[in-house]
Amino acid sequence: MGFERQIEEALSELKASGLLRKPLRISGPQGPEVVIDGKPVLCLCSNNYLGLANHPAIAAAAEASLRLDGVGAAASRLITGTMDAHREAEGAFADFLGASAAALFSSGYAANVGTIQALVGPGDVVFSDALNHASLIDGCRLSRAEIHVYAHRSPGDLESLLAQHRAKGGRALVVTDSLFSMDGVTAPLVEIARLAHAFDAGLLVDEAHALGVLGPNGRGVAAAAGVKPDLVIGTLGKSFGLAGAFVAASEPTVALIRNRARSFVYSTAPPPMLARAAIAALGVVRDAEDPRRSLLTHAATLRAGLRDLGFDVPDGESQILPVLIGENDRTMRLSAELLDQGVFVQGIRPPTVAQGTARLRLTPMATHRPEQIDRVINAFASLRNPR
Ligand SMILES: *Cc1c(COP(=O)(O)O)cnc(C)c1O
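That is the input. Now the predicted structure with pyridoxal-5'-phosphate docked in place:
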């Protein structure tokens, strides 16, 4: 069989199992409403939790930077150097998290695959939560360290794996999401940090979905729990409304990452405009106490409203609400029906979540109005044949 034919076959298999993904076409900016095929719909599926993706002051900072710094960074920073914008952004994010240094990456994905591979390698051991984000999983694999996957949010399982396998390693690293993106639950960071410390392992916490939303001034789950991980990964693509990411850690750790993380060393630095926009976004995030409160109130209203209608919405205190459906086709049919009613909710299928646990994932935004949240609940109420 020819190559093109084989590719077509792979696509047909995806389609047959209800797993073919087709992104919709959005016109105009991301906001609490977006325009799909000319029609405005409520957006309940973005990670733009605080509505900063289209924030005038942040856009103005980017515009000013275009005139000051130009559009590109010209090469990897190890070649053309660290621009003022990068240096200032790294200082601002290190400060924000109370770390001594930070390194800026072009995405959270790049930060995770680069950071883990920079810190551990063959002969070392990593301990990874079973439901960690794909970029953490890929980072562990790329590192070629020995990988031990512990049961989701289970300090007990982590402890027994550490006891069994820690002695082998030169270095050991425990890796976890702080707020799990598809379930909206947090990791037991106090217990995990205690174990990492007891076994002389480093702790890397990925705060992608938590930063900007949870913790004092939006500093995340670790800060809320009074835990100080060795490394915190923060992405700029979610609450910060931009793109890019940073890792905050000690000076020596960040120095090693800058020298060894292949996605940092062998990749063009993010545009300086992005770094300056990130500094502006950080200023907004820090003071966003009222928006954070609105966001979590919207989430609580949705959780209660959908449960009242009989939907399976697990407990949670975050802005992420999974509505468990089960089958892939059914999930996508409900998503399409909601879109017809003007509510954009994404269906999440394997391999993003486990087989048989396909779900609708709802994420309100701080900038939704209460009546828009009510409209979402009404749309669920009028679904034909919802379960
Ligand atoms: C989204 C996400 C990432 C990837 O970040 P990007 O900036 O979108 O590449 C990494 N880790 C977690 C936990 C995420 O949710």
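The chain is about 45% helix and 15% strand.
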